[in-house]
Amino acid sequence: MKHGLPDYNTEDCIAALASPWGQGALAVIRASGQGCLERLAPAFSKAEKLLRARGGAMLHGSIKNPQTGEALDEVMLGVFRKPAGYTGEDAFEIYCHGSLPGIRGILSLLARLGFRQARSGEFTFRAFSNGKMDLTRAEAVREIVCAQTEKAHTLALRRLSGAVADKINEAKGLLLQARADVEIRLDYPEEDSPDAEAGDTAAAAARCEEILERLLATCAEGRLYQEGARVALAGRTNAGKSSLFNYVLKEERSIVSENPGTTRDYIEALVPLAGIPVRLYDTAGLRDSPDFVEGEGVRRSRRILEEAALVVYLVDASEGGLFRLDAEDEKTILSLGGRVITAWNKTDLLPPQALRAARQAGHLCLSAATGDGVAGLLGEIGKRLLPERPAGEEALIDSLRQKELLEQSLAALRRFSLRAGKYPLDMAAEDLREAMGALEKISGETTTEEMLALMFSRFCVGK
Ligand SMILES: Nc1nc2c(ncn2[C@@H]2O[C@H](COP(=O)(O)OP(=O)(O)OP(=O)(O)O)[C@@H](O)[C@H]2O)c(=O)[nH]1
Ligand SMILES: [Mg+2]
C-alpha cells in the first residue's frame, strides 16, 4: 500500500539527526531509502563490508570525505535491510560522537551524497506506507516520544503494541459480518428466514457499538495523561500555599515568609501526579490590597483560578474558629463550583485530639511544614482529575483524530440500530458502510492526503 503525499516523496533517500541537537556522549543520524547503503558506501572506511552487510549488522569504521579521504568521525554504523527495520526499506543509523560540528559535518556530507533532509515524521510515514504499522500505531510512536509521565508512556507503548488496533479490528470484523448479512438480503430478497438473519445482524452491530462506546469513554482519561491538567493552590495570605508548593516540588522554588502578601507573580511547575502531568500554580494570597503590585498579582491569580481544572483552597487551621470557614473563604470556595478541594494547613499547630476529630469529620488536614497529610491531598487531586473509565478497559485512546472517527462510526451504527427493520435495506447497508469507512480511516486503510500530512507533521524530525 503506497500513499503519495506532496511533501513526502517515498522514492528518494532521506536523512536526519534522530537525537536532540546538542552536545552529548553520542548522537544518532538516521537515513532510509532505496539504495541508501550504496550511496553511503564511498564515505565509509569499510565500503566493501558495508555493501555485504546483512540487516541488523553493526559495523565499526569512520565516516570520511570520499574526495579527500579525510575522516569526519569514528562511528558505529547500524545496517537495516528491507523489509526488516523500522521503515521497511534499506536504512542505516550512524552512532557518532555528540559534537555539534561533527554532526553538522556528517549531515552536510550526506546531503552532498544525495540524501534529502527528512521532514517531521517522515521515517514513521515510510513505515506506515510500507505496511509496517497502521495509523493507530504510528500515532502511538509520537505519543511515546511526547509522553511526560511514566503512565502516559506505558499507555502509548500499549497502543504501539496494538491495544487500540486490536479493538478496531474486532469491531471491523463484527461490522463486516453485519454488512455481509445485509448485502445478502439485498441481493436475494426472496430467500427465507430473514428474521433470524436480521437478529444476527443486529447482535453484531450492537456488540460493535459496545466496543466503540467503551473505547470512546477512555478518551478523556487518555488525553489527560498526554495533555495534563492545571491545578492551582489558592487561599488567603499566609495560608501556606508557597510552603506546600515547595514541599510538593521538593525544592525551595517560592519565597516563604511570615509576612502576608509574599507571593505576587504566580509561579508554575510541572509535577507528575497519578501519572498525569500536572502544571501546579502557586498564587498570590487573596486579599484586597491598596498596593498596586500586590493587587495586580491577586488579579492575575484569580485568572489562573478561573482557568484551572482544579483548585486546592488552603486554609490556615490554626487561625480562627476550629475548622470553620469564614465568609470570605466561603465566598471564594463557592465561586469555584465543583472544581475545588478545601484543605486545612498548619495542622501541626493543633492539639492531636483536635486533629484526630477533624480527620474523622472528613476534613482534609495537612501540614506543609512537616509533610503530614500531603500524600493524602495529592491522592485526592489525582482522583478528582481522573474521569470515569469503563472497568477493565485497558486500551486508552488519546488521539482526537481517532475520537472523531469513532464518533462518526458510532453515529452511523446507532442510526442503523434505531431504524433496523423500519427502513429500506439499501439505506441500512449505507449506514453500515459509513460505520466501516470511519473505522478504516482510524487504522489508515483509507485516508486523505491532508489528514496524513497533518498527522505526520506533528512528529519530530528524525522520527
Ligand atoms: N507551623 C506551620 N507553619 C507553616 C505551615 N505552612 C506554612 N507555614 C508558615 O506560614 C507562613 C506563611 O507561609 P507561606 O508559604 O509563605 O504562605 P503563603 O500562603 O504562600 O503566603 P502569601 O504568599 O503571602 O500569600 C510562613 O512563616 C511559613 O513558615 C505549616 O504547615 N505549619
Ligand atoms: Mg506565597
Structure explained in plain terms:
It is built from 17 helices and 12 strands. The protein is an alpha/beta fold and 463 residues long. The protein folds into 3 domains: 14-132, Gyrase A, domain 2 (2-Layer Sandwich); 141-218 and 394-444, tRNA modification GTPase MnmE domain 2 (Four Helix Bundle (Hemerythrin (Met), subunit A)); 225-385, 3-Layer(aba) Sandwich (Rossmann fold), CATH 3.40.50. It has a 6-stranded mixed sheet with strand order 3-4-5-2-1-6. The chain has a 6-stranded mixed sheet with strand order 8-9-7-10-11-12, with helices on both faces. Strand 3 and strand 4 form a beta hairpin. The protein starts with 13 loop residues before the first strand and ends in a 7-residue tail after the last helix. The mean pLDDT is 91. The structure holds guanosine-5'-triphosphate (GTP) and magnesium ion. Magnesium ion binds at residues 241-242, 254, 262-263, 282.
Kindly provide the name of the CATH class of the largest domain.
Alpha Beta
Shape: flat
Fold-level CATH name of the largest domain: Rossmann fold
CATH architecture of the largest domain: 3-Layer(aba) Sandwich
Instruction: Please give the share of residues in helix.
Output: 40-55%
Measure the end-to-end span.
20 Å
Bound compounds, please? guanosine-5'-triphosphate, magnesium ion
- List the helices and strands in order: EEHHEEEHEHHHHHHEHEEHEHEHEHHHH
* Mean pLDDT figure: 91
- Spans with pLDDT under 50 lasting ≥5 residues? none
